[in-house]
Specification:
The complex is a heterodimer.
Chain A: H1 9-17, H2 21-43, H3 46-62, H4 74-92, H5 97-105, H6 108-111, H7 120-132, H8 135-147, H9 151-158, H10 165-182
Helix pairs in contact in A: 2-3, 2-4, 3-4, 8-10
Chain B: H1 3-7, H2 11-16, H3 22-34, H4 36-54, H5 63-79, H6 88-95, H7 99-132, H8 137-173, E1 176-182, E2 191-197, E3 202-209, E4 217-225, E5 228-234, H9 237-242, E6 245-247, E7 254-263, E8 275-280
Antiparallel strand pairs in B: 1-2, 1-8, 2-3, 3-6, 4-5, 4-7, 7-8
Classes of the chains: A mainly alpha, B alpha+beta.
Chain lengths: 183, 283
């Protein structure tokens, strides 16, 4: 994709608002792997993840007018749409908490490294991150972010008092950020 | 509020991980609006979380991209079609979405207005000239008669033009609008729009974006009737880009329109590999 045009965030937003399909294609090519990664991790099923990815990009196309530059970056907005849509779909399937934990620990897609499209450095980075985060830290982040678990559910899974969930989450994310800094 | 304490309370991390309750989210958003330190801290955590998430990118199956583009193309057809069957108030809702009508009519109106004003000025000027000049009343009278005849003739010519443009406007109102979009990913962003009246079978075409054809080639419009292509004629790019090209009439049953690139003068059957744009007629 080296020869392709690059667009500023503002150009992307304007292009989408004026229904420019070329810009939309560019957006898809650049961001669909990140969004698909999230969706697949939430749903743990390639078929439903493809359906949700399609739904997510249609939502982006249809509701770009609702995107407000003031409230955050375009990528954050798209990521939120992907995460929320995937978690809604997961909830509609009525998975039990135990099932969600099971899915996170047996994450087949994560282990099949040939599926990732990010440059190798990111993939190495990910292995480092996963290596250095302890199991509890990774579980608490992933249960919240990818499975949409509540504080109560996390307290139950980790068998810790409800009042300490936020502190544990903070520590886990601080650890994550420290690892990222060293990459 | 103790800002530092608030920042280290864990609320920001909970928010970014999607764990915060609705009330906490509102609270944090208010704090972010009020204290730049809180906003900066939240943005930094958000960025790192996004980095962690992006690291886990996975390429989606290639078919999804095509499916999405197909859907948004069809969606364009379904949502942007004003049809005469719509109720009057609904049409007025669509009116704002029809800049092409404005483009079509306004130059004509401008021309009419300019011509009328010029005619009026000329008449005033002649009147002044004649009344200031000699007492040749007869000459003045005859000149005025000539002028009057000329203005009546001009006027009727203008009226004819106005009627034509009004008829065109009326017929556009009764027409289905069929936007045709890119069909192959290798030629992105193409757009041409058919206006078709299934009752009168009249077809007009306007081109927003199509590459210029080679000198020995011409674009040809097709209607698809029960799966079979029906020729709707070739067109000159110039006319279709600047305004509307009048095409051959199309029988009422057409379900789709499409444009292919053919040899100059057109072909009896479309070259499917050279199909540039296509769009469904709204059912």
């Amino acid at each position: 994709m080296g020869t392709e045009n690059t667009y500023t965030e503002q150009e992307l937003v304007q292009g989408l608002k004026s229904r420019d399909q070329q810009i939309f294609g560019y957006l898809y090519d650049h961001y669909s792997p990140a969004l698909y990664g999230v969706i697949l991790k939430v749903l743990n099923d390639e078929n439903s993840a493809s359906d949700v990815l399609q739904e997510v990009f249609l939502k982006i196309w249809r509701s770009i007018d609702k995107y407000d530059t003031e409230k955050g970056r375009l990528f954050t907005w798209m990521l939120n749409i992907a995460r929320n849509t995937a978690i809604d779909s997961l909830r509609s399937k009525g998975h039990k908490l135990e099932q969600k934990i099971q899915e996170l620990t047996n994450d087949v897609y994560l282990q099949t490294s040939q599926l990732t499209v990010q440059p190798t450095v990111d993939h190495l980075g990910l292995s480092k991150v996963l290596e250095k985060l302890n199991k509890e830290q990774r579980t608490i982040i992933d249960l919240a972010y990818y499975k949409g678990c509540t504080q109560e559910e996390i307290a139950r899974v980790l068998d810790i008092p409800l009042g300490t969930v936020k502190t544990r989450m903070r520590n886990a994310i601080i650890q994550l950020r420290n690892i990222l800094k060293q990459l | 509020m103790d800002v530092q304490r608030y920042i280290s309370s864990g609320i920001i991390e909970s928010f970014v991980a999607g764990l915060a309750t609705d009330q906490e989210v509102r609270e944090l958003q208010a704090a972010m609006a009020q204290y730049p330190e809180v906003k900066a801290a939240a943005d930094a955590v958000q960025l790192d979380m996004e980095r962690y998430v992006t690291m886990q990118s996975i390429a989606p199956p290639p078919a999804v991209r095509d499916r999405i583009f197909q859907l948004i193309n069809n969606e364009g057809v379904e949502t942007a079609v004003p049809v005469s069957a719509y109720a009057a108030e609904e049409q007025s809702l669509y009116a704002a979405d029809e800049p092409k009508e404005v483009k079509l009519v306004s130059p004509v109106w401008r021309y009419v207005a300019a011509a009328a004003i010029l005619g009026l000025l000329a008449s005033v000027w002649m009147n002044v000239q004649y009344s200031n000049s000699s007492n040749d009343w007869k000459g003045k009278y005859e000149a005025l008669l000539t002028e009057k005849d000329k203005m009546i003739a001009d006027n009727s010519a203008m009226q004819t033009r106005m009627q034509t443009s009004e008829q065109m406007l009326q017929s556009l109102r009764g027409m289905k609008m069929v936007p045709m979009y890119t069909v192959t990913p290798t030629r992105p962003g193409l757009l041409a729009t058919v206006y078709w009246n299934p009752k009168s079978e009249e077809v007009m075409l306007t081109v927003t974006n199509l590459p210029a054809p080679a000198a020995d080639q011409q674009y040809q419009l097709w209607g698809i009737v029960n799966g079979k292509p029906v020729d709707a004629g070739v067109f000159e790019m110039d006319a279709a880009v600047k305004g509307f090209a009048k095409m051959k009439s199309m029988v009422p049953g057409a379900q789709m329109f499409a444009i292919t690139l053919e040899k100059k003068g057109g072909s009896p059957t479309p070259t499917l590999t050279a199909m540039y744009v296509a769009g469904k007629v709204q059912g």
